[in-house]
Amino acid sequence: MSSYDLVVIGTGPGGYVCAIRAAQLGMKVAVVEKRATKTFGGTCLNIGCIPSKALLYASEEFEKAGHGLKALGVIVDAPKLDLPAMMKHKDDTVSANVGGIAFLFKKHKIEPFYGTGSIAAPGKVTVTAEDGATQTLETKNIVIATGSDVAPLPGVEIDEKRIVSSTGALALEAPPKDLLVIGAGVIGLELGSVWARLGSNVTVVEFLDRILPGIDGETAKQFQRVLQKQGFSFHLGHKVTGIAKGERLKATIEPAAGGAPLTLEADVALVAIGRRPVTEGLGLEAAGVAVERGRVVIDQKFQTNVPGIYAIGDVVRGPMLAHKAEDEGIAVAEILAGQHGHVNYGVIPGVVYTSPEIASVGATEEELKEKGVAYKVGKFPFTANGRARAMRQTEGFVKLLADAQTDKVLGVHILGAGAGELIAEACVLMEFGGSSEDLARTCHAHPTLSEAVREAALAVDKRPIHM
After folding, report:
1. How far is Cα 282 from Cα 292, in angstroms, rounded to an integer?
2. pLDDT value of residue 363
3. Active-site residue identified among 67, 413, 446, 466
4. pTM of the model as a whole
5. CA 104 to CA 117: how far, in whole Å?
6. Which end of the chain is least crowded, N or C, by CB within 10 Å?
């Protein structure tokens, strides 16, 4: 029976980062990975964040070649889609990333075990291999980092061929003529964007009366208009009650508020209504670990109600984001080493990797109004930014929200090219409690898209230079 300082169940972004940081701090660490391919990185690296970004980038380049270069004086023949080659790019990207984690585990002497991990008792993890063989690992501490899985849609069976989850949507053999996306969240809109660029007609059905719940309302509304210009159709405030299979799929949708049903036809339907924590089979109930609404209950130090058992990432409270899980993994490793690991949940950015991108950090206007916080708004459009004009990427804006009394930045919301990179500046500013005046007085290189961020800060005090 092997003995460790830490056993991490799950090697997604939270789990593998936790394991590496713990090893850096001198702990003897083991990880348990149940993926049949015996690859690390969890959903994110294998069938989520990384492969989707590979296809988003490739499809965006395809779109540029077909429609965006002529205006720049670049004349090329109409591009032809080689989908197998595009999928190979995706697969090569995944292989490089998961291989990199395997290298890091070897470098830090982290021992992997393959199979399903369950907690036999505090300090004991049972690993059950595919052939049924079991072994028990003894450990001082256990971290649950099992992530999340696709949330099912009642009455609709996912076959990953015609009715697909995000997994199947990353592996279609041809662009469907008509793609039905069920759910207007990040995953649905990103994958819908991929196939729209490659020739699919995309229709989105969303139960709520808006897209991207949780995103700043004004930003989401403008983004919906952008997507409609790109060819997206929306049925907001509707729910899918069933999908009949035939020569084509026939989906029945009904208004959420009641009313006559509609029928939508499609070749492929993508179910993207959210994700749910993976906690089944972990032995949590037998171990006495508290679970609430499907998520493991933890304290401020990520410990469950059972001493020595911790949890991070999608299985605990907070947004289901890879970088949030990574920060929690680092924090819990440092806590176990006697340090002061901490995560500032008020400064966790979120990004939608469409074209243009959306990036947000901190509070939305809706949240500030609900809390009764007095605030000021500074907004600057990319149409007035020199670099954006040169790139022909003028859709969107930067919006900055600052406390009306202290000028402390409370939230930043960006719709535009490179938003996912631009948001980092706002995160650093907010992490140090910075004000809009701090940002406004910071010199930015010209010409850059980042100047729009500075101009938004200047606009808080109604003194933007270029608007």
Report:
1. 15
2. 98
3. 446
4. 0.96
5. 21
6. N
State the angle between helix axes of 83-107 and 49-63 in degrees (0 to 180), rounded to the nearest 10.
Answer: 140
Contacts 24+ apart (CB under 8 A), 372-376: 373/403, 373/410, 374/403, 374/404, 374/405, 375/401, 375/402, 375/403, 375/404, 375/410, 376/401, 376/402, 376/403, 376/404, 376/407, 376/436, 376/460, 376/461
Half-sphere exposure of residue 183: CA atoms within 13 angstroms, side-chain side: 20
Tell me if residue 167 falls in helix, strand or coil.
helix
342 counts as catalytic: no
Provide the H-helix boundaries in 108-185: 166-169
Residue 1 pLDDT: 56
Please check whether residue 45 is in contact with residue 357, taking contact to mean a CB–CB distance below 8 angstroms: no
The CA distance from 14 to 99, in Å, is 17
Q: Is 400 exposed, middle or buried (0-12, 13-18, 19+ CB in 10 A)?
A: buried
With beta carbons less than 8 A apart as the criterion, state whether 311 and 302 touch: yes
CA distance 71 to 92: 32
Which residues, given as ranges, of the chain have pLDDT below 50?
A: none
pLDDT at 269: 98
Where residue 197 falls (left for φ over 0; alpha for ψ -120 to 50; beta otherwise) is alpha
DSSP, res 408: B
CA dist 4 → 26, 41, 64, 141, 280 (Å) = 11, 21, 52, 8, 24
Q: Locate tokens 């680092």: which residue?
A: 330
Helix (H, G, I), strand (E, B) or coil at 80: coil
What angle is formed at CA 347 by the lines to CA 346 and CA 350, rounded to 5 degrees? 110
| Strand-pair partners of 8 | 31, 143
Do residues 378 and 436 touch, judged by C-beta distance below 8 A? Answer: yes
β-pairing, 275-277 with 178-182? unpaired
Q: Which residues contact 116 (CB under 8 A, 6 or more apart)?
A: 32, 34, 127, 128, 281
Share of the chain above pLDDT 70, in %: 100
Average pLDDT, the chain: 97
pLDDT digit string, tens, across residues 162-208: 999 999 999 999 999 999 999 999 999 999 999 999 999 999 999 99
Helices (H), 230-376: 284-287, 322-336, 365-371
Three-state SS at 403: strand
Q: What pLDDT shows up at residue 425?
A: 98
DSSP single-letter state for residue 71? G
For the chain, state the CA radius of gyration.
24
3-state secondary structure 192-220: HHHHHHCCCEEEEEECCCCCCCCCCHHHH
Per the structure block, which two tokens stand in for 76? 């090329």
Q: Judge whether 145 and 325 are in contact, CB under 8 Å.
A: yes
**In sequence order, which residues have a C-beta less than 8 Å from that of residue 155 and are 6 or more positions away?**
241, 242
Instruction: For residue 450, give the nearest of 431, 429, 435 by alpha carbon.
Output: 429
